[in-house]
Amino acid sequence: MSGDLTLVRAKRSRFFAKPHKSQFDGNETQHVKGNLTASVDGSYSVVADSLDLDVGTIDMNDAIVSNVKNVLRTEKTTIAHSALTKTASQYVKIYRASPGDTVFNQFGNLTAAFGRGASLMRTRVEVGAKADPNGFGVSVLATPEGWKWTTESYSYKGAYFYNASRDRVPKSFAAGADLYALVTASDMFLASLDAGSIDIYLDVMSRA
Fold it and tell me: With 164 labelled, which of 67, 118, 123, 195 sits at a CA distance of 20 to 30 A?
Protein backbone atom coordinates (compact mmCIF):
# COMPACT_ATOMS: atom_id res chain seq x y z
CA MET A 1 0.00 0.00 0.00
CA SER A 2 1.29 3.44 -0.86
CA GLY A 3 -0.09 6.91 -1.09
CA ASP A 4 -2.27 8.80 1.40
CA LEU A 5 -4.09 6.89 4.09
CA THR A 6 -7.81 7.76 3.95
CA LEU A 7 -9.70 5.34 6.21
CA VAL A 8 -8.77 2.37 8.34
CA ARG A 9 -10.58 0.46 11.03
CA ALA A 10 -8.34 -1.87 12.99
CA LYS A 11 -6.79 -2.32 16.38
CA ARG A 12 -3.33 -2.26 14.89
CA SER A 13 -2.17 -1.06 11.53
CA ARG A 14 1.03 -0.34 9.66
CA PHE A 15 1.32 2.06 6.81
CA PHE A 16 4.16 1.78 4.29
CA ALA A 17 4.89 4.62 1.91
CA LYS A 18 6.89 3.73 -1.16
CA PRO A 19 9.84 6.09 -1.75
CA HIS A 20 9.47 7.98 -4.97
CA LYS A 21 10.88 10.89 -6.97
CA SER A 22 8.81 13.56 -8.65
CA GLN A 23 9.20 13.66 -12.42
CA PHE A 24 7.91 16.53 -14.53
CA ASP A 25 7.07 16.68 -18.20
CA GLY A 26 8.15 20.29 -18.64
CA ASN A 27 4.63 21.76 -18.80
CA GLU A 28 3.97 22.21 -15.11
CA THR A 29 3.97 25.45 -13.18
CA GLN A 30 4.75 25.14 -9.50
CA HIS A 31 3.38 27.72 -7.09
CA VAL A 32 4.92 27.41 -3.66
CA LYS A 33 2.84 28.74 -0.79
CA GLY A 34 4.86 29.82 2.19
CA ASN A 35 8.62 29.45 2.46
CA LEU A 36 10.59 26.94 0.44
CA THR A 37 14.07 25.93 1.54
CA ALA A 38 16.15 23.89 -0.85
CA SER A 39 19.38 22.25 0.25
CA VAL A 40 21.68 21.06 -2.52
CA ASP A 41 24.77 18.94 -1.92
CA GLY A 42 27.61 19.28 -4.39
CA SER A 43 27.50 21.39 -7.52
CA TYR A 44 24.17 22.43 -9.01
CA SER A 45 23.64 23.78 -12.49
CA VAL A 46 20.54 25.40 -13.95
CA VAL A 47 20.36 25.42 -17.75
CA ALA A 48 17.68 27.58 -19.36
CA ASP A 49 17.15 29.76 -22.41
CA SER A 50 16.40 32.62 -20.03
CA LEU A 51 15.86 32.96 -16.31
CA ASP A 52 13.57 35.57 -14.76
CA LEU A 53 14.00 36.09 -11.02
CA ASP A 54 10.97 38.02 -9.82
CA VAL A 55 12.16 38.47 -6.24
CA GLY A 56 12.71 41.26 -3.79
CA THR A 57 16.18 40.71 -2.29
CA ILE A 58 18.77 38.08 -3.16
CA ASP A 59 21.15 37.27 -0.31
CA MET A 60 24.32 35.59 -1.61
CA ASN A 61 25.69 35.17 1.92
CA ASP A 62 28.98 36.86 0.96
CA ALA A 63 29.56 34.37 -1.86
CA ILE A 64 31.69 35.33 -4.87
CA VAL A 65 29.82 35.70 -8.16
CA SER A 66 32.07 34.78 -11.09
CA ASN A 67 31.85 34.73 -14.90
CA VAL A 68 29.25 37.49 -14.97
CA LYS A 69 28.61 39.42 -18.20
CA ASN A 70 26.73 42.69 -18.70
CA VAL A 71 26.93 43.38 -14.96
CA LEU A 72 29.20 45.91 -13.29
CA ARG A 73 31.71 44.09 -11.14
CA THR A 74 34.94 44.90 -9.30
CA GLU A 75 38.27 43.36 -10.30
CA LYS A 76 40.82 43.44 -7.48
CA THR A 77 44.59 42.98 -7.71
CA THR A 78 46.95 43.08 -4.75
CA ILE A 79 50.50 44.31 -5.29
CA ALA A 80 52.85 43.29 -2.49
CA HIS A 81 56.44 44.39 -2.00
CA SER A 82 57.59 40.84 -2.82
CA ALA A 83 56.38 41.30 -6.42
CA LEU A 84 58.49 44.42 -6.88
CA THR A 85 61.87 43.28 -8.16
CA LYS A 86 63.00 46.19 -10.32
CA THR A 87 65.00 49.28 -9.47
CA ALA A 88 63.33 52.67 -9.78
CA SER A 89 60.00 51.69 -11.40
CA GLN A 90 58.03 48.63 -12.41
CA TYR A 91 54.82 47.83 -14.32
CA VAL A 92 52.53 45.31 -12.62
CA LYS A 93 49.72 43.84 -14.72
CA ILE A 94 46.37 44.19 -12.95
CA TYR A 95 43.79 43.25 -15.61
CA ARG A 96 43.40 42.08 -19.21
CA ALA A 97 40.59 44.05 -20.84
CA SER A 98 38.68 42.10 -23.49
CA PRO A 99 37.06 43.71 -26.55
CA GLY A 100 33.87 45.39 -25.35
CA ASP A 101 35.00 45.84 -21.74
CA THR A 102 34.14 49.17 -20.15
CA VAL A 103 35.95 50.45 -17.07
CA PHE A 104 33.85 52.87 -15.03
CA ASN A 105 36.12 53.58 -12.09
CA GLN A 106 39.45 52.80 -10.47
CA PHE A 107 40.63 53.19 -6.92
CA GLY A 108 43.17 51.74 -4.54
CA ASN A 109 43.77 50.94 -0.91
CA LEU A 110 47.23 50.99 0.65
CA THR A 111 46.98 48.19 3.22
CA ALA A 112 50.61 48.30 4.38
CA ALA A 113 53.10 51.13 3.91
CA PHE A 114 56.05 50.45 1.63
CA GLY A 115 59.42 50.53 3.30
CA ARG A 116 62.40 48.66 4.62
CA GLY A 117 62.76 47.82 8.28
CA ALA A 118 61.41 50.67 10.36
CA SER A 119 61.93 53.21 7.57
CA LEU A 120 58.99 54.14 5.36
CA MET A 121 59.95 54.75 1.76
CA ARG A 122 58.15 57.12 -0.56
CA THR A 123 56.50 55.06 -3.29
CA ARG A 124 54.20 56.40 -5.99
CA VAL A 125 51.53 54.44 -7.86
CA GLU A 126 49.58 55.24 -11.03
CA VAL A 127 47.19 53.10 -13.07
CA GLY A 128 46.53 52.84 -16.79
CA ALA A 129 48.02 51.22 -19.89
CA LYS A 130 51.68 51.27 -20.84
CA ALA A 131 50.89 53.80 -23.57
CA ASP A 132 49.18 56.00 -20.96
CA PRO A 133 50.28 54.84 -17.50
CA ASN A 134 48.11 57.35 -15.60
CA GLY A 135 44.99 57.00 -17.75
CA PHE A 136 42.89 55.70 -14.85
CA GLY A 137 44.63 57.03 -11.78
CA VAL A 138 47.21 59.80 -11.66
CA SER A 139 50.48 59.29 -9.82
CA VAL A 140 49.89 59.53 -6.08
CA LEU A 141 52.11 58.97 -3.10
CA ALA A 142 51.15 55.60 -1.61
CA THR A 143 51.11 56.87 1.96
CA PRO A 144 49.58 56.98 4.49
CA GLU A 145 47.64 53.75 4.71
CA GLY A 146 44.05 54.01 3.55
CA TRP A 147 41.94 54.66 0.47
CA LYS A 148 43.37 56.55 -2.48
CA TRP A 149 41.90 57.83 -5.73
CA THR A 150 38.43 57.97 -4.19
CA THR A 151 38.00 61.65 -4.94
CA GLU A 152 35.82 61.87 -8.05
CA SER A 153 37.71 64.69 -9.75
CA TYR A 154 40.29 65.04 -12.50
CA SER A 155 42.91 65.79 -9.85
CA TYR A 156 42.92 62.09 -8.91
CA LYS A 157 41.30 60.38 -11.91
CA GLY A 158 43.17 60.05 -15.17
CA ALA A 159 42.23 61.22 -18.66
CA TYR A 160 40.42 57.95 -19.37
CA PHE A 161 37.71 59.09 -16.95
CA TYR A 162 37.61 62.80 -17.80
CA ASN A 163 37.45 64.32 -21.27
CA ALA A 164 38.87 67.68 -22.33
CA SER A 165 35.83 69.44 -20.87
CA ARG A 166 36.37 67.70 -17.52
CA ASP A 167 33.19 65.69 -17.99
CA ARG A 168 33.16 62.27 -16.33
CA VAL A 169 33.24 59.43 -18.88
CA PRO A 170 33.90 55.65 -18.82
CA LYS A 171 36.66 53.98 -20.80
CA SER A 172 35.64 51.31 -23.35
CA PHE A 173 38.02 49.00 -25.19
CA ALA A 174 37.38 48.03 -28.81
CA ALA A 175 40.35 45.65 -28.68
CA GLY A 176 42.00 43.67 -25.94
CA ALA A 177 44.42 45.58 -23.73
CA ASP A 178 46.62 44.88 -20.75
CA LEU A 179 46.18 47.31 -17.87
CA TYR A 180 48.94 48.05 -15.39
CA ALA A 181 49.86 49.77 -12.19
CA LEU A 182 53.14 51.63 -12.45
CA VAL A 183 54.99 51.62 -9.14
CA THR A 184 57.83 54.12 -8.73
CA ALA A 185 60.27 54.35 -5.84
CA SER A 186 61.63 57.71 -4.75
CA ASP A 187 63.95 56.76 -1.87
CA MET A 188 65.42 53.38 -2.74
CA PHE A 189 65.16 50.54 -5.24
CA LEU A 190 61.85 48.68 -5.28
CA ALA A 191 63.74 45.40 -4.90
CA SER A 192 65.06 46.63 -1.56
CA LEU A 193 61.60 46.95 0.00
CA ASP A 194 60.66 44.34 2.60
CA ALA A 195 57.20 45.70 3.47
CA GLY A 196 54.24 47.19 1.67
CA SER A 197 51.01 46.16 -0.02
CA ILE A 198 48.32 47.93 -2.05
CA ASP A 199 45.00 46.72 -3.45
CA ILE A 200 44.02 48.07 -6.87
CA TYR A 201 40.35 47.96 -7.90
CA LEU A 202 38.74 48.37 -11.33
CA ASP A 203 34.97 48.62 -11.79
CA VAL A 204 34.40 46.75 -15.07
CA MET A 205 31.46 45.70 -17.24
CA SER A 206 32.03 43.06 -19.92
CA ARG A 207 30.02 42.22 -23.02
CA ALA A 208 29.39 38.63 -23.98
Answer: 123
